[in-house]
Amino acid sequence: MAGKIIVIGSLNMDLVVFTPRFPKIGETILGSSFSTFCGGKGANQAVAMARLGADVQMIGKIGKDEFGQTLLENLTANQVQTESVLEAEAQSGTAIITVDALGQNTIVVIPGANRELKPEDIYCLRETIQHSDYLVMQLEIPMETVVAAAKLAYESGVKIIVNPAPASDLPDDLYPLVDYLIPNESELSILSNLPVTTIEEVKAACAVLLQRGIKNLVVTMGEQGVFYRGEDQEISISAYPVQPVDTTAAGDAFIGGFVTALAAGLPIQTILNRASASGAISVTRQGAQTSLPYDHEVDQFLKVR
Ligand code: RIB
Q: How remote is the CA of residue 212 from the centroid of ligand 1, in Å?
């Protein structure tokens, strides 16, 4: 029986413009289309895990507005448990996203209600957190909330996974609590304060973070694949080649795949393959939560490769 997963993180309504190319500073251009998608790194990761068959509960905050209701209903429709998604006296989180013809994006997040998720909320949910097996967090909620939740989870032996996105320095006392840190190359560079362009540089930056107490690092590098560094093991895997349509939430799809396979007790090589497949499928589809694959789609993708 796979373990129970709690995701503490953001819920955003994504307002997305598809455009042939990004405008230059001060330039006006004509885009191709506009859509809204349910997003937010926390909610995306929770939906990714639920679609892959995990038992997952979300802790977060939405506003008392239409976006909040839509975000909540979409989580429920995807079998994410939502009884700990709270309401705030603030607008629901939004993200303004531009996607170009190559599937690349720019994202500006307005945290809104996500910023109102405070350590006091986490203390009220102590039992829920401490009775889970895995805790997954990102950095679109206040850092003090992330640290408070990590401390509670650590006390009870809950495995802690942190995706340090958007990139930000982490407090020193968080590192030793984290079982798996999953940055991309630029987040790794900011955390280690080192350049990260070659695989040698990735390894050197990982060594710095391991010295701070992290147990396992998983570095996602887009088309360059994934590098895993555990306490006594290193694994590099290549990316699955796909034609990108929209890379939004590719990292979230990867983390969903990673944690679901981890909670199912699979070996690390299989975990990395399933996570990469999940990320690769998501970039072939538009939107955040709309792009996240189901378990049978990951199975099928891996079968033909
Ligand atoms: O990781 C993608 C997500 O980042 C988007 O859904 C957007 O809401 C921002 O949080």
A: 28
